[in-house]
Amino acid sequence: MSIVNINNVDKTFFSQETATTALKDITLSIDNGEFISIIGPSGCGKTTLLSLIAGLIQPTNGEIIIEGQQILRPSPKTGYMLQQDYLFPWLTIEQNITIGLKTMKKLTQDTKEHALSLLDKMRLIDKKNDFPSQLSGGMRQRVALVRMLATQPTLLLLDEPFSALDYQTKLKLEDLVSHTIKEQKKTAILVTHDIGEAIAMSDRIVLLSARPGTIYQIFEIPQELRVLMPFQARNHPRFNELFQLIWKELESLE
C-alpha cells in the first residue's frame, strides 16, 4: 500500500528578475516500509524534493499526500535527518533526544523511556549525561537518528546523513541505520550523491535528470541485495554490475 503519493509536482522559485524551475512533473508512489534513494546530477532538485515532502516548502503545481493527507506544512508524520547533526550543544544527550517530544508536548515517562531504549540500541546509553562536544561525529549522528525516531514518525527523510563522516564510520552507520529502519518498520527516502550507498541501502533508486529535475529512470534493486546488510551488499557480485549501469546513466546526464 502506498504511504507517499507525489502527483505531478512542479517547483519554480521566483525572484524579482527570474523564475527558476527546479523540478518538473514529478510523479512517484512509495509503499509502506520501502526504502527509496534519490540520486542525480548536482543541482537537479534532490534536496528540493525532500523539502517538498517534508512540507517545508510548497509545490508550484501538483500535490504531495502522506497517508491520505495532503502536505501543506511540516507534519509529525515525517522525521528529518540532515548532513549535520544540529544537536544543541548546551543540552545533554538525553535532553537532545527528547527535545522533539517536548516541543510536540508528547514528553511523558513512557516516551522518554522509549527514547532512552533507542539510545541503548545505538550503544550510547552510557553517554546520556554527556554533551555533544564529548562525542565523535559518528556518535552524534546516531544521537540525531534517535532524536528523529523518538517522535515515532511514519516517514524518515534522510538528506546525505553520512557524507560528513569518514569512510569506515559511514559504512558502520549505514548498517546500523538500515537495521534500525527495518526493525522499526519505517518508510525512508534518502538523498545521496553516493551510488554505492544508494544500491546498498535501497529497494528502489530514483534517478533525476539535470535541472529542471524530472524522473529520468527508476532502478529496482534485486532481491538478493535487498535482504543483505549494506556492507554485505557491497560485496555481492551483482553490486558492481548495477553500479556500472547506474554510473553510465548518471554520467550521460552530466
UniProtKB/TrEMBL annotation:
InterPro entries: AAA+_ATPase, ABC_transporter-like_ATP-bd, ABC_transporter-like_CS, ABC_transporter_ATP-bind, P-loop_NTPase. The keyword Transmembrane helix does not apply. One of its GO terms (molecular function) is ATP hydrolysis activity. Pfam families: ABC_tran (PF00005). Residues 4-231 form the ABC transporter domain. Keywords: ATP-binding, Nucleotide-binding, Transport. SMART domains: AAA. This is Spermidine/putrescine ABC transporter ATP-binding protein. It comes from Anaerobacillus alkalidiazotrophicus.
